[in-house]
Amino acid sequence: MSTLRDEPLLCLEGVHTHIGQYHILHGVDFEVPRGQVTMLLGRNGAGKTTTLRTIMGLWPAREGRIRFDGQPIGGKGATLPTPEIARRGIAYVPESMGIFGDLSVKENLLLAARQARTVDDIDTTRLEWIFTLFPALKKFWLHPAGKLSGGQKQMLSVARAIVEPRQLLLIDEPSKGLAPAIIQNMIGAFRELKRTQTTILLVEQNFTMAKALGDTVAVMDDGRVVHRGPMAELAEDEALQHRLLGLSLAAHQ
Questions:
Q1: What span, in angstroms and rounded, lies between the C-alpha atoms of 24 and 26?
Q2: Residue 234 confidence (pLDDT) above 60
Q3: What distance in Å separates the CA atoms of residue 126 and residue 133, rounded to the nearest whole number?
Q4: Alpha carbon distance 18, 16 (integer Å)
Q5: Is residue 172 one of the residues assigned to a domain?
Q6: Would you state the torsion angle of the CA atoms of residues 184, 140, 165, 66, taken in this order, to the nearest 10 degrees?
Q7: N or C, where is the chain less crowded by C-beta within 10 Å?
Q8: pTM for the full predicted model
Q9: Strand pairing partners for 37?
Q10: Element containing residue 228 per DSSP (H, E)
Q11: Residue 94 falls within a domain, yes or no?
Q12: Taking the CB of residue 63, how many other CB atoms lie within 10 A of it?
């Protein structure tokens, strides 16, 4: 007999999203297994970011259903407010990173720690663990976040999402514009998060990262999911890569 723990952590069924007069998502269907990294791939404009924002309730799904941990959180007549979705254990790292440039690294993390009034209220063990993932954050603890490098800002944006335990991370193109060494640091951090049974839905254009991290993959095109399956199978099938993405992963190593 299957249990809730055997079910996907996140499930989208027939999700349609409109932004103003534009119909962006056209019946999106895919699942995110617990404790795994699911890659959401596709050409620019395919609907990946809209999918993440719809899951978070930032743009409501007009049709279909979104279930998280067995409970409805989105869909026609059922979309929860974004703060409530976050309280249920979902964190969103947007492509824009969402950090506060005038505040210090310390202040950014304190704002993200909902249960903490001062930095002393943050779990010390967890904070030290974050510093092992992203040592630069400890070094620049009191520096304004706006003065960090692009890679350090991305580290801070992820750290904000995990300063408290989360069941699911939605992360939008974390490697965009980063140097290869910083990308490798990100890959290591996400592997460590996966080791702690944190589930990740990751939008990414860097196929080295996708291949290194992905357990499963959903490929989008024109607001629909056109392929679902193991990431390893897509990574090994250049003909399928060309058909779905218009390029080869091997050309992006």
A1: 7
A2: yes
A3: 11
A4: 7
A5: yes
A6: -70
A7: N
A8: 0.91
A9: 200
A10: strand 224-230
A11: no
A12: 15
- Tokens (6 digits) for 155: 């580290």
Residues 49 and 65 in one domain: yes
Residues 54 and 24 in one domain: yes
In Å, how far from its chain's centre is CA 229?
18
Q: Quick one: tokens of 135?
A: 């040592």
- Number of alpha carbons in the 13 Å side-chain half-sphere of residue 201: 29
Contact present, 28 and 223 (Cβ < 8 Å): yes
pLDDT in tens, 111-167: 888 877 787 788 889 999 999 999 999 999 999 999 999 999 999 999 999 999 999
Residues 185 and 243 in one domain: yes
Residues 196 and 81 in one domain: yes
- Whole-angstrom CA distances from 223 to 22, 214, 220, 228, 230 are 11, 21, 6, 14, 21
What percent of the chain is modeled with pLDDT above 90?
Answer: 74
The answer to whether the CB of 120 falls within 8 A of the CB of 110 is no
